[in-house]
Amino acid sequence: MCEAEIEKIKSQLKIARNEISNLRSQINNLNHVHRKDVELMKATLQDFRCHGWSISEPMKESNIEPKENDLSIDLKPIGYIKTIFTDKRAVPRQANIAEGIFSRIELLKDVYTNPQQSLETLDEFSHFWIIYYFHRNICHFKPKVSPPRLDGKKVGVFATRSPHRFNPIGMSLVRLDHIEGSVIYFYGSDMVNDTPVIDIKPYIPRYDCPEKFSDNGTLTPEVASMKAREEPEGEDSQDETTTPTSSSSSQQNLADVKVPAWINNHPTLTVIFSENALGQINEFKFNQKTIEDILKNDPRSVYVREKYLSQIYNFQVDGNNVICKFDDVNGTVTVLQVRRM
């Protein structure tokens, strides 16, 4: 065999080795994609329970009690929430963090023939609870989670409001603006657009709020101005002049209400707008306070905050892409740019 033929065979072997290497890389990538797809399908099937309320098997009259895990509950949405947040990134952690955000709930017409009838007299309340389903969460619930205010320390999931739960159900207290037909308009939003609504309940201070908290975490007496709206349907208000309250009873109520110290650990950041960002906000006629409310409470997760200290951060809100830079040393965040998506 001549030298030229040997070199030709070596060249072909080299090409074959490269092709084999490329095929191995493609197989690894396909395996990775396949695993991700399987995990997503499992999570979707496990979370898929919005098809009417039913019990998996009818309970027959019997002396045998059902086992603890024999029941399966399926819920159907009564409507969907429409908000300015198209993605989970930078969504406020609580509704009152950005209480100026205007949102709405659109009730489904196949739940009630006349859905507006179900909303009669709701406008007599100033606030209401929204109970909803975390439809964008990939199910990876754990018994302990790390709330952002604890900087990595873990606590039991039932001692937090983490969205990653065995049953991914959320609840938010919002301020009612007005009702038009079967659409409810409200202020304050911590939900992604098109979040399915499970239920709506009026906020009644007498039952829902033992006492109000001030900004520094100390307790203050319940706001008297909300008293006029706290009576539930079918229950008459009592004349306060005939219902005296003792100071000792009030002090007892204050002593009964407590929260962990870390709940009140919420230092706010100073939000700075560059001249370029201010010009773009004015050009697009966007609400500057909305961006400020989102950023001053630091929407980053503990993982992002610790791994990418003082990093460039972007998020989408109301069709705009907001680009900013955090300065964790000085406790500031500068909005650099606001662009239309």
Structural commentary:
Strand 6 and strand 7 form a beta hairpin. Among the domains are: 125 residues, Beta Barrel (Elongation Factor Tu (Ef-tu), domain 3), CATH 2.40.30; 73 residues, YaeB-like fold, CATH 3.30.2310.20. It is built from six helices and 14 strands. The longest helix is centred in the first third of the chain and has 45 residues. This is CLUMA_CG009020, isoform B. Belongs to the tRNA methyltransferase O family. Keywords: Coiled coil, S-adenosyl-L-methionine. InterPro entries: TrmO-like_N (IPR023370), YaeB-like (IPR040372), YaeB-like_sf (IPR036413), YaeB_N_sf (IPR036414).
Number of helices: 6
- Helix/strand/pairing class, anyone? alpha+beta
For the secondary structure, the number of strands is 14
The percentage helix is 10-25%
Q: In one word, what is the shape?
A: extended
CATH architecture of the domain at 79-203: Beta Barrel
Radius of gyration, CA atoms, in whole angstroms: 27 Å
Superfamily at the CATH H level of the domain at 79-203?
A: YaeB-like
Secondary-structure element sequence? HEEEEEEEEHEEHEHHHEEE
CATH fold-type name of the domain at 79-203: Elongation Factor Tu (Ef-tu), domain 3
Q: What is the average per-residue confidence, as pLDDT, rounded to a whole number? A: 77
The main sheet comes to: 6 strands, antiparallel, barrel
> Distance N terminus to C terminus?
65 Å
Stretches with pLDDT under 50, minimum 5 residues: 51-62, 213-219, 221-255
Strand content: 15-25%
